[in-house]
Amino acid sequence: MRFDIVTLFPAIFDGYLTQSLLHKAIQRQLVEIHRHDLRDWSHDPKHHKIDDRPFGGGPGMLIQAPPTVECVEDIERASPVPARRILLTPQGRRLDQPLAEDLATSPRVLLLCGRYEGFDQRVLDILQPEEISIGDFVLNGGEVAAMIVVDAVVRLLPGVLGDELSNFDDSFSRGNRMLEFPQYTRPREYRGHRVPEVLLEGDHGRIAAWRAEASLQRTTQRRSDLLPDQANTNKHENSPDFG
Predict the structure, then answer these.
(1) What tens digit of pLDDT does each residue of 103-156 get?
(2) Ramachandran angles phi, psi of 143, nearest 5°
């Protein structure tokens, strides 16, 4: 899979691209990350300016349409694989796990990182990108949001995780759209908190049932909006022992 990231600050990604599972995925050629400095498409050869004041007045600056549109068009011509255009913006569709799973099926994703007051509207009108938000808040730029999109998608690609089932039962994921069940490791007891006995007995059927019930109870308590209507009305008189 290939990511093209259009940004005014490509160096922001230096550390991120050289760490952990993403770095290993790049080394193993499971994913390509290409950064593109939008200033390289500036129509101002002296100062490489790509922003200007908004027509009609108002605070801040807007990223101009010509360098942005021409940048995206040039990038897309560099590879025969069609790019799925994504604009990171607080006005977009909220990123969730099903959307990340959908993006993971795309062979190429192009991420537009805004700055200042955003892009000239004609960028959206001409390029018609999908608009994605990571939440109802405003960042200084789209770079952090782009990292989140890359992180959420790359871990879904075959071969990136050591265990292919690792991303199947995560919270919100394909095998479990609810919150994940509690998990434990050694020691069996710490400061009076014990691991639930059912997890120590080796009965995989009982463990699976406990985990399903624990996941349902945790989701009911914390994120009931994730539950089907019939599950929302279930009282669950026998709650699992979380230890």
Answers:
(1) 999 999 999 999 999 999 999 999 999 999 999 999 999 999 999 999 999 999
(2) -65, -45
Integer Cα distance of 58 and 49 in angstroms: 19
Among all residues, which ones are annotated catalytic? 90, 117, 155, 170
Together in a domain, 37 and 121: yes
What's 86's DSSP letter? E
Query: Which domain range does residue 206 map to?
Result: 178-243
Distance CA 5, CA 20 (A): 20
Asked if residue 90 is part of any domain, the answer here is yes
| Residue ending a domain, choose from 154, 187, 210 | 154
Contacts of 156 (CB under 8 A, 6+ apart): 100, 101, 104, 167
Pairwise CA distance, residues 71 & 74, whole Å: 5
Alpha helices, H only, 34-142: 65-77, 97-103, 121-127
Alpha carbons 235 and 190: distance in angstroms, whole number: 31
Same-domain pairing of 212 and 119: no
Give CA–CA dist 41/77, Å, rounded. 15
Is residue 227 included in any domain, yes or no? yes
Phi, psi (deg, nearest 5) at residue 73: -65, -40
Model pLDDT for residues 156-202, shown as the tens digit of each residue: 999 998 666 565 655 555 566 788 889 999 999 999 999 999 999 99
Cis upstream peptide for 228 (omega within 30°): no
Same domain, residue pair 144 and 231: no
Based on the fold, state whether residues 221 and 139 are members of the same structural domain: no
